[in-house]
Structure formats: structure tokens, C-alpha cells
Amino acid sequence: MRYLLLKATVLINVLLFSPLHAQEAKNRPLPAGRTQPPRPNPPPVPNPPNRPNTPQPEPNTPQNPPPTDSDTQLQAVITQQNIIAIDNTNFSLPDINSAKAQLGKQLFFAKNLGGEQSAACVSCHHPVLGGGDNLSLSIGVKAVDRKNNASHDLLGLGRFNGNNTDNNQNSLPSVGRNSPTVFNIALLDRSLFWDGRVERTPNGQITTPDSVLDQNGRRRPDANLAPNTTLAAAQARFPVTAVNEMRGEFLTSSENQALRASLAERFSSQDNTWLAAFNQVFNDADISFDNIADAIGEYERSMLFANSPWNNYLKGDLNALTDQQKAGAVLFFTSRQQGGANCVACHNGPTFSDQRAHLVAFPQFGAGAGNESNTTTSQDFGRENVTSDPADRFHFRTPSLLNVAVTAPYGHSGAFQTLEEVVSHYANPRRSIDRLFAARGNVPFVNGLAPLCRLPQLVTLQEKNNSLCEDIFPDAYQNSIDVVTQLENARAGQVVARAPLVTNIRLSPTQVGQVADFLRALTDPCVTNRDCLTPWIIDGNNVASFPDNLPLIAHDKEGNEL
Asked: What pTM value is reported for the model?
């Protein structure tokens, strides 16, 4: 009798708190008009939602074994917190095969959007590289290979900064932050960029770096944005203006709007292939940057990859997670007071992000981000650079955890290579930084090989420059200690911080591994399969049909096409 009651309780929870009820789970409709381009002999691929015309399997619920103790505990958490699966039919998303998304895909891969025609949006956001670039710190314009040969189409490891190969900088990245994934950008409705500088206000308007300030120093809605501009389209307007990302030395004295107009003119002044495509989509022969950004935003918004094992578990498949992952999920969603990790305090909602900025004292290395509110150093003040409020110092936007297994390295500077390192950081940020830098007694690089020096990008820099790891970013340890000191002072009430990590978590090494394994269960199998990602990629097969002669056909350091 106890077993039957337990099984009935779990079944009721699944039916009540899955976003699809029994009949919906059986039919699982796809968005209207979704079609998939043919691919030769693709390997078997799990069937994510929002995948064009992909047959959906029957749910595994009938074959489920009796619920285990871990299922019972996890289902209680799911019920208590009203956690529901992502249902792509709840979102108004573009089809990747729609004319606008297809135009956006071509623009995303177009080097003509780069000021010097050496970089495209995809330079830092390739689908095969997790929607990012697999680097700790991104490389934008003037990319070179290990031998300093211009190599604009080389993405990922082996891509170096060609701006400074003839001085002491030795090909170091000039972009100060890690490249966030573009996957599931449509689910982010509050803010974008690590510092949230493109942000939707409570009344639905959008503020950006182009916003003017009111008398109180607050940003007004960006008057340059057309009505109904999406957050993704607003974000797409800014990489082209960043000197180290896509602009380079192009029109250095021009304001952002003049720069964008000049870039748009390139597409109007070529043959009529681009003109025909824009006219088809917008019914307008005039190619404006507003339409360019709109199309890119729709391409990005078509990338919904949320058919993870965790999502399938929420739909009733108790076999979708391992016992290790179920234990990690319980820790993730349980408060510290109840023995959990309380990750859900910030990583919540369908994207596992509250989209707000927090001070969690992740390490800082690299070129920094300018710190316009105070000083210019290799430090990165994060959100304070947007608000000019010292209470926001070292605060960064909570990243989404969807597909986190393919978006390493982690953090705003890409300082952590593994999820275990990330989870362990929250147990003791100062100890985490000392371990990363192999520090002892506040002296870095003296306690064995520093994990920082094993970051793949830093390994390639050491090899290319024949240099010591500690010489690459000599201020990195002190910058990181300054950040963790800010957190500790905020906790002690000695400085004002808007949203500091309140307290450390207490997890055993086994529990750290359980949480990390649960995080891996948030990844849609499609993002690990090249054939499944094909509809979102332009490669050598598309050169003949590309509207101009400057597509970015990505390859890795071995010359293999991505």
C-alpha cells in the first residue's frame, strides 16, 4: 500500500506540474510551418523542441520504473517550487527557415558587417562552439594564427589577436570578456551582455549604451530603436561599434549611428542580391541598419535549444536523469539552511537566470573593460560601468545555465574550465581564487601548477610566445583578490553592494560533483551534434549562394571546417 501511495503521489506531481498534460505530452505539436532542410545520412539525434519538422517520440512514462527515493525527494522539490518544463509552443519564435531568419543567418556570417571586413558576428558566436567561441577571452578584429598569418576565419583555439604581435603584448586578447552564448537568447527578456547594458525597462522600453541620461543620471530609452524592437535586435547593434570586436579602425571618429549607416551602405552598393533579399523580407528597397539588426535578432531568436534531459524529466520521463543528477538537482534547488546549495536563488526561471547583476567574486584577468566610471585599468568593474554607481562594482549578470555543458570556459573572464570549479567557488571564493592561481600566503604561482595556466587559451599563448603563465596577465591575481575583498567587505557592511553573494555554501566534494552533473543535464543534445545544427550554419556548401564574396566560412586550427 505504501508503494502504491508513493507511486500515485509522484504521478500526480508529474501531471500537475509538467507544462504538458497527458494528451499534450503524447502529441507535442511543433510550430506551424517548421520544415527541416535535407541532410545526407544524419546520425540518430535526440529530438529537441523547435527543431524543424522533427518527428517526436512517445514519452517514456509508460516504461518508467518505480520511483526511487531520489525521485520522491526531487518531485517534492518540483512540486513545492512549481517548476515546469519549457514548452516551445508558449513562445512566439521565428522559424529558422523563414525568410527573415535566413537573411539574418547570412548577415550573421557576413564579414562586410565588420569595419575592416575581418570579423563577423559568428567570429565570437558559432553554433558548433556552443554559440560562443570556446575561448576564455574573445578575439575580434585582425585575427591571426600561431605564425601570425592573417586568419580571420579561424575560430576557437589557435585564434590570436593580430593587433599587437609586434610588441610586448604578444597576441593577447584585447576583448576583456568571455563571449556569452547566443543559444536561447529569445528566452532572455530582461537584459543582455555581462553588464546588462542592453536592458528592458519595466514599461517594456529598452535602454542601451546609446541612451541619453536624464537629470538624475539614469538612462532613458534608446530613441534610435524602432517600435517593437526585440532585445536581441537591440543587442545586435553594438558589437559592430566596438573597436576590439568588429569595428577595428573603421571610421574611428564617427558616432555609432553614422557608423551603422556606413555599414548598411555597403550592402546597398553591391549587386542586387542583398537588395532582393531585403526587399523580400521587409518590402523595402532601402537597406537600413534597423532592418539588418532586426534580421540578425530573428536568426538568433530561432535558436531555441531546450530539449535537455532535465526538461524531459519534468515532462514525466523519470529515466531522463541519473541518480547522481537527481541528487544534484535536489541540492541545486534546496536552500542552504536545509543543507542545499541554493543555486536557485539566482539561477531560476526557464533560463536558470534571474537576469540580474550580482557580486560573486569570480576571478578577473585579461584586458579589463575600461571602468569608465572611475579609472582605466585591467580591472573590470562590471555593472558599475553602466550605472556609474559604486554599489554595482564587480557585479555581473547571472548567466543562463541552459546548454552549460558546451559553453566553457565559465565566468565573465572565462577563468574556470570546469563546472566543478564553478560550483566549488561558491563554497569559498577566496580559497577558490588562491587555488586558481596556486597562491600561498597571498603570493601567486608558488603552490604547484596553477589551474589558470591550464586554461586552453592560456596554454596556446604560453606556447606561441614561449612565455611563463604568470607573465601573461601579471595583474590578474591582485585584480581577483580585490574583487573577493570587495565581497568580504560588503558582507561585513564596510562597503555598499547592491547584490552580493550573501554567504558561502557547504558542499562535500561528492555533492559538488552531483551539482555539476545536474548542470550537464541542462544541455540539449542537438547542440553537440553538427548535423542537428546544420540549419543554423553557413559553410563551404553555401558559398556559391551567399550574397557577396565575404562570408566567414569557419574552420579550426587544423583547417577543419566547423
From this structure: 0.88
